[in-house]
Structures are given as structure tokens and as C-alpha cells.
Design brief:
heterodimer; A: 314 residues; mainly alpha; MetI-like fold; 73% helix; 1% strand; B: 349 residues; alpha+beta; Rossmann fold; OB fold (Dihydrolipoamide Acetyltransferase, E2P); six-stranded mixed β-sheet; five-stranded antiparallel β-sheet
């Protein structure tokens, strides 16, 4: 065996000569590696998305209930009825609130993880942040329904410490209140924040980790108080992470149709509207038109974020 | 407030402990106003800790640090009249070069027009005029180093701290920056405290050098002092080539059992058996290895009485001129009696 290997490196096994063949043709390797994912992305993913969006240019015949395959903007005209605009506003405001609250909770946590933990305790933090993602989404949402219910642990806890009247006062607030937390917008918001929080913590932590200690020291060295150093150095450098996290929390909230259905006032969100329109109502064009809304909202959001310099430090 | 007669920086019995590790151990020294002072030592010797104590990034476990007579205990970095050039430069990537340089002025609320003018003047001083609009990532290593220097100098600190500022540059650039740094220091007249592990850098630039080892200072003195009269075996070995002779070999050469060092370039290498002048010492040996360095040749000579000496011989003529200048050749080493430096046996402790 050893003798054979010595005499003829060119006469190696088939796999060996294939390696040599590919090693000498990097362009071919690149093509072979890129074609399957590009096919997936271009045809299956984007293709079906565009097919769906094309549906929104058709409209439904009011009498027969059948889809009329003639391109037009009739469906979009129907999209902007007051009832539908209500749904869109409700969803966008909720997504914005969830994003802001996630950011407010995630930033201090991520800052602590990036700056003050040892390697070992950082691993524990990572697991703690990601642990919820390992359990079933529906189970977690139903758990929150129970936690937030009138007979649930939160009401019990408020009563225990004598703050039951505070909870009643909060629930008596117009719009965001309700008979109990589990059937109010507050409950929906809490559940959203819980479910999407890891998606905010991880990118913010990664961004803060890339700010070396010497930047903070240099800023202090040049006369900046800790508050100024935070405002002028740490925050600007963490903003791309916050932007990345907010893209997750914002877009995931825009598209979700299960949480507002299980926890909340049962007033529809965009996801629920799409679900209802394409299923029971059979109004595929309107469902497709609704599906356009989150895409447009995200486009506007990213444009604004870019305008404010969110990606300058990338 | 600040005392004009007081030294720029003074340490009194300063120690910094990390758990059981003594990063800085009972340091006491003064650095004069306007001095170029080098902290020289191997990595982990406590020189950077010393710098961070002056900057205020760390507080001493015990002892007293003063800057221009003002006690620094409990004073945070942003209230100290001291600025730092960081080893990794620490330029802020989200700001332009000009904004980086003007950062200290912006923090002090200097109006925009004024600070832009001063930043441009600073950039001109470090030979980067007109590059204020670039991003730090668009500059070369040497240029970033200059930006870091300009940024640290714009607040006109009374003391400038430099943490191995030339460490990341290649040799040619490093030599050029040594000359420029020295010129800038003379121009601005600020006290420079310069951390380095490069003995050549410390010798060529400093007014005085403190040699660090294991958290302590082995010797403080002028470059000539430290090089010609090393106080301890460690200094002799760290600054320049170690040529320590001790025990029986030392006794045989000098007639005293005390260890001594001799700088390799002070030794004259002659053919075996040549005569020795009255004011000179000599030792016989054989050449163990020959290292041709271009301008000079470095010989390791095993002494007949034990021990080894390094000899650096200028190549005034072709090095192969004498037949005995080869590996295994028998030689006699001769040097003037006054050039040896006697060292206490325990390294001065």
C-alpha cells in the first residue's frame, strides 16, 4: 500500500482524483455549491411569494364568489376600507410597542452579558435566553393564557400583596384593558414580548461584544463621563444590533396570527385576517393584498432606520 | 492645585494586586516634568499596569500616586489631566478621522468651528493634513497610529501615556516613527511615559528608563546608565545581549569570585596566545558558532575555564580574513578592565 502511494500520486483512488479535479477548478466548485441554494431561493421561495402577490391583482366576484383572473387594482381599493385600516393600524402599533419593550428589556441584559460575565456564566445566560425556543411555541402561548387569566398566577400575586385594586384599575383603562389580562391588548403584548425577546437579545449582545474595552477607556481618557461614553460610543456601535433585533421582533409580530387569536381581545390582526380570508372566506386576492402590507411596512421601516443612520457603523 | 515644582508623576509604595498576583509591587519613583520616560520590561512585568494606574483605568491596591502633586486616589480617568495612546489605537470606527481627533474637544463643549480648526492643526502636526474626512478603516497602520497620537494630544494633557504605540508597525515605519515621536515630544514639551518591551526603542528615545521585572523596578537610569552599568543580572540580560560570567570562570578571569557582565562589542577577539596589555583582562576559548549579520558578525565563544561569552565584531574587513575566525577556532578574548560591570550574586535583591 505504502509502495503504491509512493510510486503514483496521480493514480490514487477515484475520490482522490475527483478532489484534484475540483481543486484545480474553483469556479466549477462555486457553481456547484451555489446552484441548489439559488434555485431554492429564486424559484421555490421568491417564486411562490411573487405568485402569491400576483394573486392580489385579481379580484373576487361578489355574486358568484369566484376569483376573476383579470389584473386590476380593485382588491386594493377594498383593502383600504376603514375596517381593514383598523386591522393594519392595530398590528403596526402592536409590533412597534413589542419592539420597543423588547429593546428596553434586552439592552441591559445584553450589556451585562457582553461586558460583565465570565465565559462560564455567559454560557448560562445564553442557555437561559434560548431555552424558551427549545419548547413548543403553542405550549408557551397557552401557558401565558393561563398565567394571564383571571384565575391565573398574576391576578393571585397582585391580590396577595394587596395590589389587586391596581390591577383592576389597569384593566379598567379604555382600549388596552379588558375583563382580564388574558383577553386584553396588554396580555397580547406581554405574550409577544416573551416569545420574541431572544431574537432581540442575541443580535444586541453580539453587537455590544464587538465594542472593545479600549474604546470605552479611550472615551473616558478623553474626558467623557460614563453617560457620555454610553451615548457617543457604546450606543452608536450597538445600534446595528438593535436594528437587526428590531427587524426580527417587528416583522414576526406583524405576521403572527396565533398569539392575538389565543391571548387578547380577539380583534383581528393582519395575520388573522389573512388566515381567515384565504381559508373560510376563500378570498385569495384579498388575502394576498393583506400579505403585501407587512412587506411594505418593513420596507418603510428599514428606510427610516437607514435614514437615521442605524447601519452606519456596520 | 497643581504644584509647579512637583514631579509630573510620582509613585510612593504603589502596589496593585490581582488576587494573589502582584502585578505592581511596592513601586516608588518620580518622573520629571517634560521628561521622556520609558517603562521597559518583558510582557507581564507590570509596566502596562503601571501605565493604567496613571491613566486611572485601575486603582492601586495600596500606595499613593500623584500627578503634578495632586493625589489621584479615587479620581476617575475623565477627571485626570492625562491622555493615552492605546496599543490598538482604539479609534472610534463610527466617526471620521477629524471627529476622532476632535473628540476630547467635543466633550469639553468647544464650538464646532474651533474644534475643527484645532483638529486640522493637530493632523498637520502628525503629517496627516487633509485626511480628516476619512474613516479610520481607510487608513494604514502607521496613519492610524498618528491619528491616535493627535487625538491624545489635542486636550494638551500635562502627561501623555503611550502603551507600546509602535508595536504593530513594521521595522522601517517603527524607526521613522521613533524619530518623529521624539521630535513631537520636543515640540509640545509634554511629559511622555512610554511603555515598551523593545529595548532598542527605549534606549534610542528616552531620557530615562525604568526596567521592570515581575512587578518590580530593577533599575532606573539614563539609557547609557542602564546599558553600560546594569544594576542586576536581569537588566544586563534584558537590555542588550547577556554576557554574564560567574563562579569559577569569573574568579579565574578577574581574581574575584563575584559575577560580572561585559558588553559583547567591548570584547576584542584575537588569535590564541596574543599578548595582553596591563589594563586589560583576557580569557581563552573556542568559537562555538558564527552568525554573520552583515554589518557585524556575532560569535559565541565557549571559555576554557567554563561559561560562554558572546562577541560582536564589526566587519571592517572581510570576516573570513583570518583562518581562526571559524567554528572550532581557538581564540583569546581581550577587554579593558573598566568595561566589566560587577553584579551581586542574587541579582540585586
Amino acid at each position: 500500500m505504502a509502495a503504491a502511494a509512493e510510486t503514483a500520486p496521480a493514480g490514487r483512488s477515484g475520490l482522490g482524483s475527483l478532489s484534484t479535479f475540483l481543486y484545480l477548478r474553483p469556479r466549477l466548485v462555486l457553481t456547484l455549491l451555489l446552484v441548489p441554494p439559488l434555485l431554492w431561493l429564486g424559484v421555490i421561495y421568491l417564486g411562490s411569494l411573487f405568485a402569491l402577490l400576483a394573486q392580489s391583482l385579481f379580484h373576487i366576484d361578489d355574486f358568484t364568489g369566484l376569483v376573476v383572473h383579470e389584473p386590476g387594482l380593485q382588491t386594493y381599493a377594498e383593502l383600504f376600507t376603514p375596517a381593514n385600516i383598523d386591522i393594519i393600524t392595530r398590528t403596526v402599533v402592536m409590533a412597534a410597542l413589542v419592539t420597543i419593550i423588547c429593546g428596553a428589556i434586552a439592552f441591559p441584559l445584553a450589556y451585562y452579558m457582553a461586558r460583565y460575565t465570565s465565559t462560564h456564566s455567559k454560557a448560562i445566560f445564553y442557555i437561559a435566553v434560548m431555552l424558551p425556543l427549545w419548547s413548543n411555541y403553542l405550549v408557551r402561548v397557552y401557558s401565558w393564557k393561563l398565567i394571564l387569566a383571571k384565575e391565573g398566577v398574576i391576578t393571585w400575586l397582585f391580590n396577595l400583596v394587596g395590589l389587586g385594586s391596581v390591577l383592576d384599575w389597569i384593566l379598567a383603562l379604555p382600549v388596552i384593558g379588558g375583563p382580564s389580562l388574558s383577553v386584553s391588548y396588554i396580555g397580547t403584548c406581554i405574550t409577544f414580548v416573551y416569545i420574541w425577546l431572544p431574537y432581540m437579545v442575541l443580535p444586541v449582545e453580539a453587537a455590544l461584544e464587538r465594542v472593545p474595552r479600549s474604546f470605552i477607556e479611550a472615551s473616558a481618557d478623553l474626558g467623557a463621563h460614563p453617560g457620555e461614553t454610553f451615548r457617543r460610543i457604546i450606543l452608536p456601535l450597538a445600534i446595528p444590533g438593535v436594528a437587526a433585533g428590531s427587524i426580527f421582533t417587528f416583522s414576526l409580530t406583524l405576521g403572527d396570527y396565533i398569539i392575538p387569536q389565543l391571548v387578547g381581545s380577539s380583534r383581528p390582526f393582519i395575520g388573522m385576517a389573512v388566515y381567515g380570508l384565504q381559508g373560510t372566506a376563500g378570498n385569495i386576492p384579498m388575502a394576498a393584498a393583506f400579505a403585501i402590507v407587512p412587506i411594505v411596512v418593513m420596507g418603510v421601516y428599514l428606510t427610516i432606520a437607514k435614514r437615521f443612520g442605524a447601519f452606519d457603523a456596520l | 492645585m497643581t504644584d509647579a515644582a512637583a514631579p509630573a508623576v510620582s509613585f510612593r509604595n504603589v502596589a496593585r494586586l490581582y488576587g494573589e498576583v502582584r502585578a505592581a509591587d511596592d513601586l516608588s519613583f518620580d518622573i520629571g516634568d517634560g521628561e521622556f520616560f520609558a517603562l521597559l520590561g518583558p510582557s507581564g512585568s507590570g509596566k502596562t499596569t503601571c501605565l493604567r494606574l496613571i491613566a486611572g483605568f485601575e486603582q492601586p491596591t495600596s500606595g499613593d500616586i500623584r500627578v503634578h502633586g495632586k493625589p489621584m486616589a479615587g479620581v476617575p480617568p475623565y477627571e485626570r489631566d492625562v491622555n493615552t495612546v492605546f496599543q490598538d489605537y482604539a479609534l472610534f470606527p463610527h466617526m471620521s478621522v477629524g471627529e476622532n481627533v476632535a473628540y476630547g474637544l467635543m466633550i469639553r463643549k468647544v464650538p464646532k468651528a474651533e474644534r475643527e480648526k484645532q483638529a486640522e492643526a493637530m493632523l498637520e502636526m502628525v503629517a496627516l493634513a487633509g485626511l480628516g474626512g476619512r474613516r479610520p478603516s481607510q487608513l494604514s497602520g502607521g496613519q492610524r497610529q498618528r491619528v491616535a497620537l493627535a487625538r491624545a494630544l489635542i486636550n494638551r494633557p500635562s502627561v501623555l501615556l503611550l502603551d507600546e504605540p509602535l508595536g504593530a508597525l513594521d521595522l522601517k515605519l517603527r524607526e521613522q516613527m521613533q524619530v518623529e515621536l521624539k521630535a513631537i515630544q520636543r515640540q509640545v514639551g509634554i511629559t511622555f511615559i512610554y511603555v515598551t518591551h523593545d529595548q532598542g526603542e527605549a534606549l534610542s528615545m528616552s531620557d530615562r528608563i525604568a526596567v521592570f521585572n515581575k512587578g518590580r523596578i530593577e533599575q532606573i537610569g539614563s539609557p547609557t546608565d542602564v546599558y553600560e552599568h546594569p544594576a542586576t543580572a536581569f537588566v544586563a540580560g534584558f537590555v542588550g545581549v547577556s554576557n554574564l560570567v560567574d563562579g569559577a570562570a569569573a574568579a579565574a578571569i578577574t581574581g574575584m569570585a563575584q559575577a560580572f557582565t561585559i558588553r559583547p562589542e567591548k570584547i576584542l577577539m584575537a588569535a590564541a596566545g596574543c599578548g595582553v596589555p596591563a589594563d586589560c583582562l583576557a580569557a581563552d576559548g573556542t568559537i562555538e558558532s558564527v552568525l554573520y549579520l552583515g554589518s557585524s558578525t556575532r560569535y559565541n565563544v565557549a571559555l576554557a575555564r567554563g561559561g560562554e561569552l558572546t562577541v560582536i565584531d564589526q566587519n571592517r574587513e572581510s570576516p573570513a580574513a583570518d583562518g581562526w575566525r571559524r567554528q572550532g577556532g581557538a581564540v583569546r578574548l581581550v577587554w579593558q578592565r573598566e568595561h566589566i560591570q560587577r553584579i551581586a550574586a542574587d541579582g540585586g535583591r
